[in-house]
């Protein structure tokens, strides 16, 4: 295939220029998005990108160069430039570096997709979004929005070790939100989640979401929130719905177990981690109910793939087992430095970004209880769901999250609606307070995980269930 | 024939109104951590963006394939998308031929900077930190943008931007230094490394402090966090139209010491001097002496609100409106703001700040890279990072700004490619809602 030939030419040019290892990715991506607002389509965008990114290793120093020209001559130029950049890196060198050995593969992979989302007509998609926003406006929303996003990505990966892997990922998702404007504040309700719901799937995912069946409810809830009582301040039991639980996992577990953060590679920007590798296998991260895995093989989840962007086959890794921290998200270089035997969590945002450690599908294994059982077992607490705001410190330890909606729980029953619910905590203490785990599992997709410099947007998945946490500080206000 | 002209020529037969933006450039970024360069990247290329309006319908597309086949595909699929979508009732037409306001701030040496040039800045930063562990980046960017539309309006601008941002670490504290300029030659890696190290050392072994309301002196790096939030959600005409903004034009919403300008034509400004709709940029005074005086418009919001575009259109702005991208808080007369702090906190940076409610601008976030307790105008001791939940509007409200620093610093925006210019501020109160222990 010509794409493999381009990548191979780039790799060979990098080696010819002095690299001891090189890999290259040719990436073609089609992106389509539509947004509707108050009964009208406000934006239709289709972006196509195609190009080549080359990574070269000289000594212990990396270089990366990318360009959108797809010719053998341009590929060779890119390969040579990547080695030139690596040589500049070597003027401020780090310790000796080896790459974790992986089995060399020549393979193809594609995710399941029943209905190609790009084959669905724009008029059908537009009718769906316009109808949703019109319905929300009719039922109390002052501002109504709905949107979908589609990514169709083909990748060809070649390494100087002999990898030749092509993949075809089709991802999509959609969502809607209603905003009610009051005298001094706004209230918002979203469905299915703050940004919608996303997966490695075709348009069948959108059908499964039943967006029309929820438009009236979210509009009415947004309006009702304007006059709902404030979430009280104090310590109480909190039941998180699964959408908010996905955010909790993403921010306080997923980022904390990224090995590049633990090693200090993100210290100046995204930050480090409170986790110390010396405690891997012994540190108590949470209660015994807490078992978290990173599994990029889950069908349909947004963080799924066949091979990561270093050619490592997708495989599940235990992150927390029965409350004990046991695993990390790693790449071939970081795993080697840390002395760990697994990698497979390195991906890049398009052809022109450097592959780096990213979450796959980092999620919580389910428990035994229904949401109703969690509520029935709670004398006094707040049930919160749908993320509205998120903030966490640079060590992923001290967080404060806000939700769109809360409900008071008294004597085992869910009562009145509460507005502006927030909760705050310290990660291991918070996870240690989890004493009931739900069984209603959803693979939530996060399509906007920012990391790196230059900035990269990652797609991650988060299997999540509702859960109860004891003695949590809630209702922090400005 | 340029790529922009080629695309307009291809569109001509359709009768569509069309605008084309061709952006060419190179972004290079050298990153270091644990005192060595661990990531070093560059990408070079061209993106062609087409937006067209035909038969009352609008669509936009882009491509990185600037070949004859690629450009034809761009035109064909954008036309197809426009014809299939519902009518666009908010279309405000194309920008007519308009005189440019500038050509952009461009430094050829920065455009040509090599990986070795950036590595030299890093080397100097690392060496000046005196053995402390360091991390950060040095980046250079060179962009040429051409805008052309079927109404006969054409503009070209070119800009460069260099930035360096790094921390030094003692094991119990981090100190930061950052700077941005049109010219890489203006960035002194050694001075930045020495400053970061000095701050880290004075912040070492911090102690806890009870959360609560404290007067604060915010360094320019912390003030820089306030301005984008106010701009994106507040001084955004679309947010105003939808009732989501705090803005009340003509009212004293800020302390009289506050004058906030979006200044895209300053000698230090990054980016090209026209917006995504080809409107030449001009300075826009958002707040004058505390009185809210303007909001940012693109053509769509200007039509909606019977106003004039202010040249703040951004790609994709159909969804979220127009954005001020060159926020500049005018300096005051304060020379030593800490000396005026009887008991309070000196804050270097804010981190991971998120808006809880756009109308009230209540934001939660944390301090980072150094906090010190000040008593009697003197720094007493370093303090562990604190969480805050604070209305940015209240913090800057009339009577709450006690002093504005005389010197403004230009700092790189963390996420975007631009810069923010801000002085230090002495504020009457900041609501710290949690300490390191939660």
Tell me what you see in this structure.
The complex is a heterodimer of chains A (478) and B (438). Chain A has 10 helices and 23 strands. Chain A has helices at residues 2-16, 72-89, 122-138, 204-209, 215-225, 242-254, 259-262, 332-338, 371-376, 427-432, and strands at 21-37, 40-58, 61-67, 106-110, 143-159, 164-181, 186-191, 197-199, 234-240, 292-294, 317-321, 324-325, 346-347, 356-357, 362-364, 380-392, 398-410, 413-418, 422-426, 434-437, 442-451, 456-464, 467-474. In chain A, 64% of the residues are buried. Chain B contains 10 helices and 17 strands. In chain B, a hairpin with a 2-residue loop joins β13 and β14 (378-382). Chain B starts with a helix and ends with a strand. The model of chain B has no long low-confidence stretch (mean pLDDT 95). At the A-B interface, β1, β2, β3, α2 and α3 of A face β1, β2, β3, α2 and α4 of B.
Counted up, domains of chain A total 2
- Name the helix and strand elements of chain B from N-terminus to C-terminus, one letter apiece: HEEEHHHEEEHEHHEEEHHEEEEEHEE
Q: Describe the biggest sheet of chain B?
A: 6 strands, antiparallel
Number of domains as seen in the coordinates of chain B = 2
Using DSSP, what is the number of strands of chain A?
23
Separate helix tally of chain B: 10
Helix content of chain A: 10-25%
């Amino acid at each position: 295939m010509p794409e493999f030939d381009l990548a191979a030419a780039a790799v060979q040019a990098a080696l010819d220029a002095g690299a001891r290892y090189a890999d290259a990715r040719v990436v073609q991506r089609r992106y389509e998005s539509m947004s509707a607002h108050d009964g009208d389509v406000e934006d239709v965008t289709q972006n196509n990108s195609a190009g080549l990114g080359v990574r070269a290793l000289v000594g212990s120093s990396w270089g990366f160069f990318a360009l959108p020209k797809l010719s053998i001559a341009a590929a060779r130029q890119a390969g040579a430039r990547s080695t030139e950049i690596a040589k500049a890196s070597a003027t401020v060198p780090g310790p000796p570096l080896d790459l974790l050995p992986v089995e060399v593969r020549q393979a193809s992979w594609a995710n399941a997709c029943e209905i190609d989302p790009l084959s669905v007509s724009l008029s059908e998609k537009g009718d769906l979004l316009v109808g949703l926003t019109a319905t929300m406006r009719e039922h109390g929303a002052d501002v109504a929005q709905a949107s979908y996003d589609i990514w169709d990505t083909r990748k060809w990966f070649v390494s100087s070790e002999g990898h030749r892997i092509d993949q075809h990922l089709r991802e999509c998702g959609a969502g809607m939100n209603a905003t009610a404007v009051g005298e001094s504040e706004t209230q918002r309700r979203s469905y299915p989640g703050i940004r919608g719901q996303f997966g490695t799937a075709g348009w069948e995912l959108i059908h499964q979401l039943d967006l029309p069946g929820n438009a009236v409810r979210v509009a009415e809830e947004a309006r009702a929130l304007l006059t709902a009582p404030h979430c009280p301040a104090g310590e109480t039991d909190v039941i998180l719905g699964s959408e908010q639980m996905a955010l909790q996992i993403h921010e306080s577990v997923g980022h904390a177990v990224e090995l590049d953060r633990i090693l200090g590679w993100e210290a100046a920007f995204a930050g480090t981690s409170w986790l110390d590798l010396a405690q891997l296998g012994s540190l108590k991260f949470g209660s015994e109910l807490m078992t978290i895995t990173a599994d990029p093989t889950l069908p349909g989840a947004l963080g799924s793939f066949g091979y990561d962007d270093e050619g490592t086959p997708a495989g599940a890794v235990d992150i927390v087992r029965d409350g004990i921290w046991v695993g990390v998200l790693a790449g071939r270089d970081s795993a080697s430095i840390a002395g760990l035997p697994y990698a497979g969590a390195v991906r890049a945002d398009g052809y022109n970004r450097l592959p780096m450690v990213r979450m796959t599908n980092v999620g919580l294994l389910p428990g035994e209880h229904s949401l109703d059982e969690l509520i029935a077992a709670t004398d006094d607490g707040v049930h919160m769901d749908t993320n509205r705001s998120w903030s966490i410190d640079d060590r992923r330890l001290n967080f404060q999250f806000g939700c769109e909606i809360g409900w008071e729980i008294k004597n085992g029953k869910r009562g009145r609606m509460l507005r502006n619910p927030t909760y705050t905590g310290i990660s291991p203490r918070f996870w240690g307070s989890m004493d009931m785990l739900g069984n209603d599992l959803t693979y939530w997709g996060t399509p906007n995980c920012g990391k790196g410099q230059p900035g990269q947007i990652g797609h991650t998945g988060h299997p999540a269930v509702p859960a109860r946490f004891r003695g949590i500080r809630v209702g922090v206000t400005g | 024939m340029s790529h922009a002209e080629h695309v307009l020529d291809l569109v001509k037969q359709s009768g569509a109104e069309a605008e084309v933006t061709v952006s060419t450039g190179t972004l290079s970024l050298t990153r270091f951590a644990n005192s060595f360069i661990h990531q070093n990247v560059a990408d070079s290329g061209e993106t062609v963006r087409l937006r067209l309006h035909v038969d009352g319908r609008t669509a936009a597309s882009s491509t990185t394939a600037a070949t004859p086949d690629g450009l034809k595909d761009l035109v064909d699929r954008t036309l197809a998308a426009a014809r299939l979508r519902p009518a666009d009732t908010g279309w405000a037409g194309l920008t007519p031929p308009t005189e440019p306001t500038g050509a952009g701030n461009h430094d050829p040496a920065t455009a040509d900077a090599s990986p070795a040039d950036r590595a030299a800045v890093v080397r100097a930063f690392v060496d000046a930190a005196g053995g402390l562990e360091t991390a950060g980046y040095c980046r250079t960017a060179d962009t040429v943008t051409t805008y052309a539309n079927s109404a006969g309006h054409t503009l070209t601008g070119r800009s460069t931007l260099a930035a360096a941002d790094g921390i030094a670490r003692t094991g119990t504290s981090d100190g930061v230094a950052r700077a941005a300029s049109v010219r890489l030659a203006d960035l002194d890696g050694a001075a930045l490394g020495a400053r970061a190290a000095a701050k880290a050392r004075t912040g070492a072994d911090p102690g806890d402090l009870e959360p609560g309301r404290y007067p604060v002196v915010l360094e320019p790096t912390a003030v820089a966090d306030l301005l984008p939030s106010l701009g994106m959600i507040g001084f955004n005409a679309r947010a105003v139209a939808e009732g989501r903004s705090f803005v009340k034009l003509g009212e004293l919403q800020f302390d009289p010491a506050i004058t906030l300008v979006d200044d895209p034509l300053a000698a230090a400004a990054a980016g090209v001097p026209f917006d995504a709709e080809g409107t030449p940029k001009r300075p826009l005074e958002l707040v004058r002496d505390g009185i809210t005086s303007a909001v940012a418009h693109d053509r769509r919001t200007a039509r909606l609100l019977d106003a004039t575009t202010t040249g703040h259109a951004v790609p994709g702005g159909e969804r979220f409106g127009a954005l001020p991208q060159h926020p500049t808080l005018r300096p005051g007369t304060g020379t030593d703001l800490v000396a005026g702090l009887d008991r309070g906190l000196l804050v270097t940076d804010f981190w991971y700040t998120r808006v809880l409610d756009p109308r009230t601008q209540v934001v939660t976030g944390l301090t980072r890279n150094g906090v010190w307790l000040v008593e009697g105008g003197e720094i007493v001791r370093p303090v562990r990072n604190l969480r805050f939940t604070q209305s940015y509007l209240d913090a800057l409200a009339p009577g709450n700004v006690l002093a504005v620093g005389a010197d403004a610093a230009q700092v790189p925006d963390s996420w975007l490619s631009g810069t923010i210019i801000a002085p230090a501020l002495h504020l009457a109160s900041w609501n710290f809602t949690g300490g390191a222990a939660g």
